[in-house]
What does this fold into?
Amino acid sequence: MPYKVSAKQIRAIILKSYFSNEGDVNERIYWPLLGQKFPNCELFWRLFVIPFTKRIESEVTDPNERIREREGISPDVFGMGLTHYSMFLNLVYAQQHFREPKISSFEDCYVHLGSACDLAEAFLCKVYLITLECSGVVSQALRELAKADFLKFAEQWFDLNYSKAHHAFVVNQKPLVINLVNKVNLLDEYFRDDRYWGQYKSFTQLIRQYRNIIVHDTQIGRIINLNGIQLVPLKEKISTYKVLSNLFLARNNPVALEKDFADMKHLMFSDIEEFEGLLNQLWTKPLNDLTNLFYKDKNELLWKKYNLTES
It folds into this structure.
């Protein structure tokens, strides 16, 4: 049975709801770590997570029950919220490794940043697919290819990627994979010429490269300078210094140390800050799109997904 409520009533609830008073235990405790650089994270939660939870049911007063989803919520809307929460947690984990370091915190920080990249894109894809469905629009990125189009794509992929992919298979036994449709294709379409999307892709490509070396390769070497500061290779230079002999040579090369290395703690901090700032910019579009559908247009299909009806 759809829950009867008006958009005006939901907005009134949202005006009083913040992570600090209506979040779960993690949101209440750790939101201050993200709030300065990524305020749109909380704003999305207020506008589009609260309405599918029991927080909008005045008769539910138990805090542990209020955070639960209501009955009848569509899986895609719930999945959107859960992915958003999972991304939030990985950003918190990265922050915690910077603030309360342990022996593996440098590596763990980049593992969580890499996971946050994956989750951010999964979240944005879920939002885009929901907006497409509710608007009755068909994505060109998801259209079924005719045989001639597929063969054209395969030929282009061969010319651009086959040699590199074949080398990767021979050296590292990485499979040759042709991606006809992936998250990046879909999000390229969603964000089109958005300059922040271009900045995001460039930045996260380096984060993922760093993360992948940490997870799948040998230990990233460190240099301790005369002041006791641990220096690590910059993300842009990690391929060079995967070979430890190159790192040992750099120890005695002031120019290489200045150009190719950074204070480990500063690198972690600056990457977390830059990533959260880019996410904050990207969140503007899904916030605007869903706000128009949910609050302005009161889109019938979107309200049905939230199991709501106008009172």
Notes: The longest helix spans residues 105-135. The mean pLDDT is 91. The chain has 16 helices and five strands. Residues 3-142+181-220+264-309 form one domain.
